[in-house]
Amino acid sequence: MVFTSMQRVPGIFNIIYYNFFVFQKSNECSIVTHMQESFASFWLSRMALVALVVYVYSAIRLWRLAPGILANRLAAVLCLDLAVWALQAALSYAADDPAVTVLLSKAMSWSWPFFAAIAFHLALELSIDWKKINRALQTGLVSAVYATALLFYYLLAGPLLQGAIRRAGYWSVDIAPGLGYSAFSAYYLILNLTSIFLVTRAWHASKAHRERARLALIVVTHAIALVGGFTTDTILEVLSIDFPKVGVLWASVWAVGLNIAMERYGFLAPFSPRDTGLLMDGFVERSMDGIVVGDARGRVIYWNEPLEEMTGIPAEEVIGESLGRLQETLVPDGKPRTSILDAVYHPMRKITDAATKLIEFEIQHRNGQTRWLQTSAFTIPSAEGDILAFIMRDVTRERLATEETLEKLRRQSHAQKMEALGSLAGGIAHDFNNILGGIVGAVSLMEAKSEDASPGLPFDISKELAVISKSVNRAASSVRGLMSFTVNAPQKHEPFRLEESVRRVAELASRTMDRSITIVTSDLPQDALVVGDASRVEQLLLNLVINAGHAMTIMKSSDEARGGAITLSLSRATRDAESNAGQSCSTPESVPYWALTVTDQGVGMDQKTLARAFDPFFTTKDIEQGSGLGLSLVHLVARQHDGFVEAESCPGAGSTFTVYLPAAGCSLDDGQRVS
Question: How many other C-beta atoms can be found within 10 angstroms of the C-beta atom of residue 281?
Fold first, then answer.
């Protein structure tokens, strides 16, 4: 009952509850809300001040870097515009009176539309060559952009400004929604997107690494600032999401990007024109290579000291002279020879940036010495036209070293021939001793018969004459074989029977090589025709046979049995481009070959040795036993006949060398078949 009466009539407890607890809860909520708003406005204001410092610092650096360059001035003005925007934001975030926010907007909101206009103007300077565009069009486009920015400032500070609204803990300007604000948003977005597009296009078109790097950094940081700012200042507001407008803070990402581009990649002229000239002079003069640069009118503007040493021509004689008039003729040894500029300038006249080419040419130094120079030429686009530049290097020592190496190869080739000839001579001397022994024996028998025969009676010497005839024929055959390998005649290009060459080499080798070696011939078709020099092919085959003989004799250890069989065979083969990969063969695809195979029962080779078997001067023999040119000459002769060589070997199992030579029917220059 008591409880019921208290419900009907408000008592002291009800009064206390409603007047203390409810009031206290409401007061606490207002205090918490006020604290949250104060916290947000405090930190937003401080962050805007930090952004202000970043913008002012960036503007000063960019301006002091090269105030004479429009792109630098635009970048500096852009940062100052952002600094004004950041100052307005910092004061608005901290303002307690909405009237202050409105006043700041009327005084400083010009920074919003002019930010987009300056960004677009900067992008034009970074991406477009204005010298190729009509100046009236340039002036009209830029003026229209800035006039539009001025119009939007009038709208934002006047008709569209409705006052201030409490937003996310601070006073923010209240812009009337509708066509005007939508037009400004579209203007802001289109100019920024166009700016990013123009710089991106210049980034992809650039061929210089540093320029590509700095343009990429500008594009990425600008895109981040645009996406972040447009999201927080426009999209979230349209979606009625209570979030601070911090677009000016997002823009600091772009300012930092400009600073990094400037520091790391020399963004917007890291040197003044005077310093750039001094820097170029320092590099040119201290270069180890010769450098000559001609301006767009063809006059020499750089001729450095190394080039003076290479040519003997001082810079004073050529600076300012026309490249076309410097066609000075030097006459070494009574033979006319053009000067350095004539040798380089005319062939490279139409050079482009995409086609740099190395050229070697011979000149005569002022002191009479002959020099070889290597040069690369390239063009540098400039406002007045393309600048032609050459980098030259004295390669006289390398050229002489190459010629010396070639001469050494020729001498070694001759020595290898003498080595093969020595082996042949030893075998032929032994063969001739046997031949002469037979002849001497036959003559002795004839003398004995003549002494024993009765005077006036005939005696039979037919057997002795047959022995002498056979011996003489053997001697003649040996001499012919020897001459076929020692003749120093030009290489021929005529069809010949490969079977006959194989038989000649086999016959010669069987008489001259170690008695423990047997020469075996098998499968020698008589229609094996190739085009080339028979003596060169026989020399190739002889080198393979001698190599095989060494593998079965001098290459074996003292406890191994020496000798064995060398098998020479000849067969048809068809090879295509895939199977000929790496063989440097110049014949058509899928053509018939004759495969000449030499197989021995020698010591064999492992894969590491086999991979180097055809290298010049590589040998596993003692120095006195081989020069290392035998197999390299085999490879050379095969290539001279549009063929190639394959080798198979295994330690202890001998080796097989196969020489592929194109069949004569598809190798004649006139295309006729050999019958």
Answer: 12
Q: How far apart are CA 439 and CA 465, in angstroms?
A: 9
Q: Which fold has domain 491-675?
A: Heat Shock Protein 90 (3.30.565)
Model confidence over 270-313: pLDDT tens digits?
455 555 666 667 777 678 888 888 877 778 888 888 888 888 88
Instruction: Write the CA distances from 347 to 161, 262, 289, 351, 372, integer angstroms.
Output: 69, 39, 20, 8, 17
List the alpha helices (DSSP H) in 98-208: 98-108, 111-127, 135-157, 179-205
Q: H helices within 513-648, ranges in order?
A: 534-551, 607-611, 630-640
Tell me the backbone φ, ψ of residue 280, rounded to 5 degrees: -65, -45
Question: Edge-to-edge strands of the sheet including 517-522?
Answer: 517-522, 564-575, 591-599, 655-662, 644-649
Phi, then psi, of 87 in degrees rounded to 5: -65, -45
Domain covering 18-260, topology: Rhopdopsin 7-helix transmembrane proteins (1.20.1070)
pLDDT band at 625 (very low <50, low <70, confident <90, very high): low
Tens of pLDDT, residue by residue over 571-609, are: 988 765 444 444 444 444 567 889 999 999 888 888 888
What CATH class does 273-394 carry? alpha beta
Give strand pairing partners of 376.
358, 391
Q: What pLDDT is attached to residue 113?
A: 92
Q: What percent of the chain has pLDDT over 70?
A: 67
Retrieve residue 577's tokens.
């481009």
Please name every residue paired with 660 in a beta bridge, in sequence order, or none if there are none. Answer: 595, 644
Output b/e per residue, 52-81; b: 16+ Cβ within 10 A: bebbbebbebbbebbeebebbbbbbbbbbb
- pTM, full prediction: 0.43
Q: Are 517 and 566 in contact (CB under 8 A)?
A: yes
Which helix H or strand E contains 22, and what residues bound it? none
pLDDT, position 36: 45
Integer Cα distance of 182 and 246 in angstroms? 19
Q: How many CA atoms lie within 13 A of 499 on its CB side?
A: 10
Provide the strand spans (E) within 365-433.
Answer: 370-381, 386-394
What pLDDT is stored for residue 616 in this prediction? 62
Number of neighbouring beta carbons within 10 Å of residue 432? 17
Note the pLDDT tens digit of each residue in 429-466.
666 766 677 677 767 777 776 666 556 545 567 776 77
- Could you tell me the two tokens for 611? 């991979």
Q: Is the pLDDT of residue 268 over 60?
A: no
- Give the containing element (helix H, strand E) for 171: strand 170-175
